[in-house]
Specification:
single chain; 457 residues; alpha/beta; Aspartate Aminotransferase, domain 1; 2 domains; seven-stranded mixed β-sheet; six-stranded antiparallel β-sheet; DUF6194 domain-containing protein
C-alpha cells in the first residue's frame, strides 16, 4: 500500500485499529471486522484498504471472507497467480452471490498485484470460512429448526477460523470479514414470524476458545444509499456517533470512546427505528454495544451504488415469459402525462385473456396532485413500482399493507434503493423502489417474476 496515496481518514483508521490490537496483552492472531449489511461497496472498500495496510505494517497474511470455505479455494488460487480467469473466480469462487460486488473484485486484483512482487513463502491469501449451507424455506418454516441451523453454522464458522489461525501459526495473522451478526461477541437473534430465535455467534465461540487472541470490530453506519438507508434519527446511537466523526470520515470507537459518547448525550440514546427488513441493516443497540464487540467502526455515510437502468429493467422484466413492456408515447395512445413511463402487462400467447392492467411500471416524473412526495423530478431519478401482494409486501417492509398509514410517517418517501410503500396503491400490495440498485438485481428480478405471476390470477 502506498503511503503517499493514503487519505488522512485512512491513516487515522489504520492507526486506531493497530492501537486497539496493540492494547491487548499479546498481539491477537485473529481480527474480525464486521459489516452492518451486505451489498454496500463502501464497507468493502474500507475493508480492502484496512487489510492491505495491516498486511504491510502489522504482519497480516490472510483475509477470510464470509463465503463457502471449499469454493474459496478457487479465490485463493487466483490471488496466488495459479489461475487467471477473474470472471470465473468471481462467479464460482464466491458463494451467496458476493462475487458481483465491485469491492470483492477490487480486493482480489490488488492482492494478486501485491503477490506478484512477493516471494512464494510470503504470499497473501484470501480464503473463506463459511459453512456450505443455506437456510431453506423448510428451515424458515420452523423456528426450532432455523435456530438449530444457525447454531450449526456458527460452530462451523468458528471451527474453520480456528483451524485457519492454527495453520498459519507464527507465520502471520488472520483478518476475518463477515456480517456483524456472525463476528460479534454477543448472541445474535432474528425475528421469525411470531417467534424470535437466538444463537451463539461464531465470534462468541471464538472469544471463548481463543481468549486474548480474538478481537472483533463491528461496523455501524449513519446512512447507506446503496441500501436506501437515510441519515439516522436524532437521539439514536448512530446519530451520536455521526456527530463525533472527524471530517465525515470513518472512525473507530473503543470501549472508552463509546463510554464517552453514551455518557455525554443529553438524552438517553435509543436504537434507530427507521429501518425496514428490506434494508437488511442491523442497528446498534445502546444497551449492549459495550459488550457486543471490542470496538465499533462507524461510517457516517456510504456512497450511491450503480443503478439498474430503465433499459435494463425493460429487458429484464419484459423478458419474463408472456410479459409485454410498453414505453408510453404518442404512438401508444397513452395520455401525454404518461409519456416516457413504462408499463408491464401479462400478454399470454394463444387464446388466453390479454391483460391491460399492469403488474409493474417505471415512472420517471412526479404526477401533480397524485404522486409528488417521492420527488421523481430530481435529476437521474425514476421509480420501479411492483404489485407484489400482501405477503411479499410485509416481508419487505415489516408491516402488512393494511397498516401502511401507521408506519409511513417514519419512512422517507424519496429514499432510494430500498422498497417503500407505493404512495397511492400500498394498501393493494404495491411497493416502490426509487433508483433500484444493480447490486440487488437478483432480488428485484425475483420480485418482478412474483408480481407477474400474481398478475395472471
Amino acid at each position: 500500500m502506498n503511503n503517499d496515496t493514503d487519505s488522512p481518514s485512512d491513516r487515522q483508521l489504520e492507526t486506531a485499529v493497530a492501537r486497539l490490537l496493540r492494547s491487548a496483552k499479546t498481539f491477537p492472531r485473529l481480527l474480525a471486522l464486521g459489516e452492518p449489511t451486505h451489498g454496500d461497496d463502501t464497507f468493502l472498500s474500507i475493508r480492502n484498504r484496512l487489510f492491505l495496510s495491516l498486511a504491510e505494517r502489522e504482519g497480516f497474511t490472510v483475509i477470510a471472507l464470509e463465503i463457502d470455505a471449499e469454493r474459496a479455494e478457487l479465490v485463493d488460487s487466483y490471488v496466488r497467480g495459479a489461475v487467471d480467469d477473474l470472471g470465473h473466480v468471481l462467479a464460482e469462487g464466491f458463494s451467496h452471490g458476493f462475487g458481483r460486488f465491485d469491492g470483492n473484485r477490487e480486493l482480489l486484483t490488488q492482492m494478486r498485484r501485491i503477490n506478484s512482487h512477493r516471494p512464494a513463502d510470503e504470499l497473501l491469501r484470501c480464503t473463506g470460512f463459511d459453512a456450505a449451507m443455506e437456510l431453506s424455506a423448510e428451515d424458515y418454516a420452523s423456528a426450532e429448526r432455523a435456530e438449530m441451523r444457525m447454531r450449526e453454522r456458527s460452530n462451523k464458522m468458528a471451527n474453520n477460523l480456528g483451524a485457519l489461525v492454527e495453520s498459519v501459526g507464527g507465520r502471520g495473522r488472520v483478518m476475518a470479514y463477515a456480517h456483524n451478526a456472525h463476528i460479534q461477541i454477543a448472541t445474535s437473534s432474528m425475528q421469525l414470524g411470531p417467534q424470535r430465535i437466538q444463537w451463539e455467534t461464531a465470534g462468541s465461540i471464538l472469544a471463548r476458545r481463543h481468549e486474548g487472541d480474538y478481537v472483533s470490530i463491528v461496523t455501524s453506519c449513519g446512512s447507506s444509499p446503496a441500501r436506501g438507508v437515510q441519515a439516522p434519527p436524532a437521539d439514536s446511537i448512530e446519530d451520536a456517533l455521526n456527530r463525533q466523526c472527524i471530517d465525515a470520515g470513518p472512525q473507530v470507537f473503543d470501549h472508552e470512546a463509546l463510554g464517552r459518547v453514551l455518557g455525554s448525550s443529553e438524552h438517553t440514546l435509543r436504537m434507530r427505528d427507521d429501518l425496514t427488513p428490506a434494508m437488511a441493516l442491523g442497528p446498534l443497540d445502546p444497551r449492549t454495544v459495550m459488550v457486543a464487540s471490542d470496538a465499533v467502526l462507524h461510517v457516517p455515510g456510504g456512497k450511491r451504488g450503480e443503478v439498474l437502468t430503465q433499459e435494463r429493467l425493460r429487458e429484464m422484466i419484459g423478458g419474463i415469459p408472456d410479459v409485454a413492456a410498453e414505453l408510453a408515447g404518442p404512438e401508444t395512445g397513452a395520455p401525454e402525462i404518461a409519456w416516457g413511463d413504462t408499463f408491464f402487462t401479462n400478454q399470454p400467447r394463444g387464446d388466453g385473456p390479454q391483460s391491460r392492467m399492469p403488474f409493474a411500471t417505471i415512472v420517471t416524473k412526479n404526477y401533480p396532485g397524485f404522486d409528488e412526495d417521492s420527488d421523481l423530478d430530481r435529476p437521474d431519478t425514476f421509480a420501479l413500482n411492483l404489485h407484489v401482494g400482501a405477503q411479499y409486501f410485509e416481508g419487505l417492509l415489516g408491516f402488512p399493507p393494511s397498516e401502511t398509514s401507521q408506519h409511513v410517517v417514519r419512512l422517507n418517501p424519496a429514499a432510494e434503493a430500498t422498497p417503500l410503500p407505493h404512495p397511492q396503491y400500498a394498501k393493494s400490495g404495491w411497493i416502490r423502489i426509487i433508483n433500484p440498485p444493480a447490486a440487488q438485481q437478483v432480488q428485484i428480478e425475483a420480485l418482478a417474476r412474483a408480481a407477474a405471476e400474481r398478475g395472471k390470477r
